[in-house]
Amino acid sequence: MASGDDKLTVNKGLELSFADPVSSLKVEDVQVSEVPQHDAESSTADPDLAGTISSEPNIRRRIGLLTMVALCFNICSSWAGLSTSIQIALLQGGPVTLIYGTILITAIYLCISLLIAELGSVYPTAGGQYHFTSILAPERMTRSLSYACGFITVFQWVSSGAAVMVITATQIMALVGYFNPGAQGEAWQLFLIYQVIGVLALFCNLFILNKLPIMHTIGFILSIAIFLATFIGILSRASPMATHEFVWTTFINQTGWSDGVCFLTGLITPAFMYGGLDGALHLSEEARNPRKIVPRACVGVIIVGFCTAFPFGIALLYSISDFQAIIGSSGFVPFEINAQGLRSGDAAAALLCAGCVLGFFILNALLQSSSRLVWSFARDDGFAFSHIIRRVHSVLNVPLWATFLNWLLLALCGFLILASPIDYTPVVLGIVGILGLINWVVYARRHFKGPRIQLEDRPVSGIEVRVE
User: What pTM does this model have?
Assistant: First the structure.
């Protein structure tokens, strides 16, 4: 029988059973007492609340609820994401895909946000999804599945950052083309602008952002201000406006595929609205009260995103007076739509200037979140040279080398701009897959530990059973 010092704790409502016969066990030998409820809020003062056991120093907690919501919204920027990728939906389903696809995708992402909010409230770690995978996967597949999820998530964030940088650089080139109609934009010019944007974001992340987290709030306010200015402007100035039939019932298929496939591929635009939804997870270890802040931010960004993107998409459709000119445009399509809706190229250019500034705030938030994911993955020895990448700079209070690695990967992605104008998606995916496999075989298979979670830090309510 168990010794007098042995204790067994089970949750309320569960049946307690033993593998060995317990015929000699008497009722009076069992002592039952309540296990006190751990206060999740008070435990946030513990610097190791995040649950990952690491010898590396932690980053100081400075992010509150408002800053976290602002940061996550800046990463997604749902209305701006819809606007900058609207050409895909217009060609692959038209208004039907844009409007009803937004509703469908929002419902799906709301379910996803509720799921990660629940997991994030229990395991608030910077690793996010790959930590959850390690905890929930079958034991024999824990390390391999966790590694695959972590590696894929890292490069998903890199691709998102590259997309933001390309869009911002394209906006700048569109402005140059508007004010200098004779100028011919070259690929090398776009490449240089792309790299300058990346260097500025790196500088801001290393030296400014951690000391002034209010920058995320400023970016959020700027985003809402541009949204309102554009929304009100195009609705009040557009003439003639598109018909109700065009906005609500028109389906356009210029893909050559069936209507069903066309609709599904057109969902890229509404899905782009919520890219980076997991940003709050990767900043859990910098939040003051992550068990509450992270879930609220994950769900809040969906609510705010839909409330801005859905009416904005409808307004854009109503403001289109010449649809053929839009889909046939060789320039920046959002600029063409705003120019039609506002009936002023200068007004559209002013909004585009503001959009370039907004793109910088988006990239800053994205680089901060993705660098924390890389930092977490390095703490679990997911990369070669992890002992260097996981270091936190004692003065800057940022994971210096993780941020540098993110910037380097973004800079390398920029060289695709100089290549021939074809779809390199299969090539990039193949390279990422090969790199992930090589890294696993050469290094991670022996060193990757997966997350080490302190389950005792979780809020617990149960009964204590003492067997004597």
Answer: 0.83
